[in-house]
Amino acid sequence: MKGALLVNLGSPDSPEPKDVKKYLGEFLMDERVIDIPLVARTALVKGIILNTRPKASAAAYKKIWWDEGSPLIVLSERLKDKVQEETSLPVALAMRYGSMTIKKGLQELVDKGCDEVFLIPLYPQFAMATTETILVLAEELREEFFPNLKIDSLPPFYNNPDYISILANSIKNELKGKDYEYLLFSYHGVPERHIKKSDVTQSHCKIDGSCCATPSKAHEFCYRHQCLEVTRLVAEYLELKPDTYSTSFQSRLGFDPWLQPYTDRTIERLGKKGIKTMAIATPAFVSDCLETLEEIAMEGEEIFHEMGGKEFTTIPCLNTNKDWVTFLANKINNWSKNGVEA
Ligand SMILES: C=CC1=C(C)c2cc3[nH]c(cc4nc(cc5[nH]c(cc1n2)c(C)c5CCC(=O)O)C(CCC(=O)O)=C4C)c(C)c3C=C
Ligand SMILES: [Fe+2]
Ligand SMILES: [Fe+2]
Questions:
Q1: Which of 35, 52, 290, 319 for a ligand 1 pocket mutation test, highest count of atoms within 8 Å of Cβ?
Q2: pLDDT (tens digit, 9 = 90+) per residue, 156-202?
Q3: N or C: which end of the chain has fewer CB within 10 A?
Q4: Does the beta carbon of 290 sit less than 6 angstroms from any atom of ligand 1?
Q5: What is the pLDDT of residues 53-106, one digit of tens each?
Q6: What is the distance of C-alpha 80 from the center of its chain?
Q7: pTM to 2 decimals?
């Protein structure tokens, strides 16, 4: 029997500092998130970050936490329930970090009789810190605990025409009747080093502004290319005028160079330039979460207003958008009939 497992990032069990510390400890000790040797990673994460960040992160989580729990978890659960309504295959949900483990998700499907699982990382673009870490862990778990299970996975779908039209239409609908002079596409950032590590050619990705627009085999694993493509394709679909939109990267951590331009500085620059109304879409996230509800909708708006901006519209993620639910259900149903599409 076949089943599907949706996998998102995860959240702490509660917005209390002790739960946030436990969650950040697991997350940041992942060698594909903080990709430095174990001794240095342990010293950085356990010796420095976990002594300071949990308190500040917990305060941020408290601002966005819902009665039912973490928005990211609640919205992912709602998504899973809606997808389940559109397929006869069992669908389960897991998180890469935290209590809703991938092991539990696979076990749930095995207990229902599944011997083939379609793994769906809930990220449109590939990144070593997201898609890759899910695939690697799922394979390790399969080898150790579920040796008879066959696991296929959905490749990144950043340039899938259906996904692009669903995203573009959701942006269009959210902006209907709203004033905006500028649309910013803000993606979660990654250290530049991650892009170079994922470059299968080891020579293409120079992060120099033009490499991501030059066709290359490297782009199958280039997060920067895939983000820029989403912006380009959505802008084309919505017929946005040049100079009324751009791409930026948010949520940087630490002192290494991350992908640029940074979102906070871009908002600042737009405000200073005299833009009075702007909107912001966050296509690296399919469910609203701390990074969209707090960092963008609260901090981003504050920066814009401080710079003289008037109207700041944060466009919700796809969440339980009907067409997005159908997109995922179609992927599951097609896999069940034909296997993984080329
Ligand atoms: C080195 C650190 C980090 C990398 C690399 C990174 C990549 C990355 N993350 C997401 C998606 C999400 N990240 C979220 C929160 C979050 N991310 C980091 C660090 C890195 N992320 C931290 C420390 C945190 C926790 C919050 C904080 O302390 O600031 C979330 C939200 C989780 C939630 O509970 O709501 C998401 C989603 C992507 C897509 C990505 C690379 C492409
Ligand atoms: Fe992150
Ligand atoms: Fe590139």
A1: 290
A2: 999 999 999 999 999 999 999 998 999 999 999 999 999 999 999 98
A3: C
A4: yes
A5: 999 999 999 999 999 999 999 999 999 999 999 999 999 999 999 999 999 999
A6: 16
A7: 0.97
Rounded to the nearest angstrom, the distance between the alpha carbon of 251 and the centre of ligand 2 is: 7
- Binding-site residues for Fe(2+): 188, 291
* For the CA of 291, the nearest atom of ligand 1: 31
**Contact (CB, 8 A) for 291 and 251:** yes
- The sign of the dihedral angle between the CA atoms of 230, 233, 234, 239 is positive
| SS3 of 24-84 | HHHHHCCCCCCCCCHHHHHHHHHHHHHHHHHHHHHHHHHHHCECCECHHHHHHHHHHHHHH
CA of 86 to the centre of ligand 2 (A): 30
Ligand 1 midpoint to CA 188 (Å)? 7
Question: Ligand 1 pocket, 289 CB below 6 A?
Answer: yes
φ/ψ (deg, to 5) at 188 = -60, 135
Domains of the chain by range and CATH?
2-157+322-338 (3.40.50.1400), 161-314 (3.40.50.1400)
Give CA–CA dist 117/93, Å, rounded: 12
User: Could you report the predicted ipTM of this complex, rounded to two decimals?
Assistant: 0.96
- Judge if the beta carbon of residue 70 lies within 6 A of ligand 1: yes
